[in-house]
Write a structure and sequence with these properties.
This protein is α+β, with helices and mostly antiparallel strands. Helix content is 21%, strand content 27%. Among the domains are: 3-52, Multidrug-efflux Transporter Regulator, Chain: A, Domain 2 (Orthogonal Bundle); 71-120, OB fold (Dihydrolipoamide Acetyltransferase, E2P). Strand 5 and strand 6 (95-102) form a beta hairpin. The longest helix is centred in the first third of the chain and has 10 residues, at 43-52.
Length: 154
Amino acid sequence: MPQYRVITAARIMGVGEDAVRRWIGAGELPSTSDRSNRMVVEGAELAGFARDRPGATVTDPSPGGRSARNRMVGLVTSVVTDLVMAKVEMQCGPHRVVSLISSEAARDLQLEPGSMAVAIVKSTDVVIEVPHSDPAQATPPPPAARPGRSDQRR
């Protein structure tokens, strides 16, 4: 089971170390001591806390450049597997991410509640919704100008 030092827990939650220490002091976030007698938080406890209190989005600590821009660092909050597939839930700052991956991949990555992971979103489909429940109340947007074209006719 992963354990996180206070400074790492703070980075994961997107807050300062003092905030994590206050949560621990108030009994909101349980902590223990590691072999070096440093205060640590169990990964599963931090994952549950992050799920109930989503924080700021965390910067991806992975080295190197990648073409995927939609990378979200977070904690695994749940892993449900069967023979073929695994449903993995993560809390990535204020965002809850759910992914269906193969059970083999989940085992290979050793995913468990409290594990830190990076969700990478690559999609060819984008769904757009409007916040209006009644289509009659929706105001249509103005027509968009086509790139590279002038509205003037010559």
